């Protein structure tokens, strides 16, 4: 009797072990198939997500080094879409005239510097720049305007803004008069600034730099923002140079804002800012 019970018990244990082994074998056999199915699904999903979209009607490339240059191939592409992509790559806002919003352009050029490239994209172009006299870097573009032919020039403060402005007050002060000599002759004026044919001339004899800049602003009819009261005296005789070259000779702490009219190949000053760099304590 005892042997029979033990036999049945052993037989039952053997049956349970056999079932467990069979289930374990099926589980192992199924896992690679499941993993393979998962990889296949992921691959299929990636293939769907990575599907290329519709081909754009233009190809635009902007390189910043060694110098800024632009390449563009466009076939009946919207100037608004090309401008938006160019603005993103240059990190400079681009403004379009009303008539240019839906205009289509067909153009192709390769590795042109900024201004010639812009001229091929639009018949009327303005570019506002910032020039730092303490830097050897080329002027930094602040805003580009693709305007309509008869739209006129953008406002002077379209991208160049500032609330500070100093004023030049002239009168019969001791420094402003021309005292007479012993023989009744008037002495030479210590500060003379002239602007003719787009060229600036400055003649200063021991004059405060701030006064010289204010006089330049008056002659150019542009605001001058003096952010420091530096009493540096200027002894200079600069004759018939572009405004940019003149201010570079006067001080390394001047920021000159200018507008380039590429259609007429002209430049004019928009604003002068004089500010010495902030000294950082060691």
Quick one: overall form?
Answer: elongated
Task: Name the structural class.
Answer: alpha+beta
For the record, the CATH architecture of the domain at 74-146 stands as 3-Layer(bab) Sandwich
Q: Note the total helix count.
A: 5
Query: Total number of β-strand segments?
Result: 12
List the quaternary state of the chains. Answer: single chain
Poorly predicted regions are: 1-48, 172-177
CATH class of the domain at 74-146: Alpha Beta
Strand order of the largest sheet: 3-6-5-11-12-9
Terminal Cα span: 100 Å
Encode the helix/strand succession as letters: HEEHEEHEEEEHEEHEE
Can you tell me the CATH topology of the domain at 74-146? Answer: Phage tail protein beta-alpha-beta fold
Indicate the proportion of strand residues.
25-35%
Explain what you see.
The chain is built from five helices and twelve strands. Among the domains are: 74-146, Phage tail protein beta-alpha-beta fold, CATH 3.55.50; 191-254, no CATH class. The relative contact order is 0.10. Helix content is 31%, strand content 31%. It is elongated, with a radius of gyration of 37 Å. Mean pLDDT is 80; it is low at 1-48 and 172-177.
């Amino acid at each position: 009797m005892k042997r029979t019970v033990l036999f049945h018990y052993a037989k039952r244990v053997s049956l349970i072990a056999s079932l467990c082994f069979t289930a374990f074998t099926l589980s192992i056999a199924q896992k690679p198939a499941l993993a393979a199915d998962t990889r296949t699904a992921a691959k299929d999903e990636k293939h769907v997500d990575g599907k290329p979209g519709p081909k754009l009607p233009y190809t635009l490339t902007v390189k910043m080094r060694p110098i800024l240059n632009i390449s563009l191939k466009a076939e009946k592409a919207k100037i608004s879409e090309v401008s938006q992509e160019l603005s993103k790559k240059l990190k400079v806002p681009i403004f379009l005239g009303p008539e240019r919003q839906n205009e289509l352009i067909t153009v192709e050029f390769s590795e042109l510097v900024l201004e010639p490239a812009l001229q091929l994209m639009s018949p009327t172009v303005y570019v506002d720049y910032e020039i730092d006299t303490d830097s050897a870097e080329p002027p930094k573009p602040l805003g580009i305007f693709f305007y309509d032919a008869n739209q006129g020039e953008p406002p002077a403060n379209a991208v160049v803004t500032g609330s500070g402005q100093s004023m030049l007050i002239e009168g019969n002060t001791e420094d402003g008069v021309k005292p007479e000599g012993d023989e009744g002759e008037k002495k030479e004026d210590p500060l003379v600034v002239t602007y003719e044919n787009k060229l600036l001339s400055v003649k200063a004899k021991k004059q405060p730099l701030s006064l010289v800049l204010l006089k330049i602003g008056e002659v150019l009819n542009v605001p001058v923002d003096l952010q420091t009261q530096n009493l540096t005296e200027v002894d200079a005789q600069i004759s018939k140079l572009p405004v940019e070259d003149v201010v570079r000779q006067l001080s390394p702490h001047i920021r000159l804002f200018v507008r380039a009219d590429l259609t007429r190949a002209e430049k004019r000053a928009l604003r002068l800012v004089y500010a010495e760099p902030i000294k950082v304590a060691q």
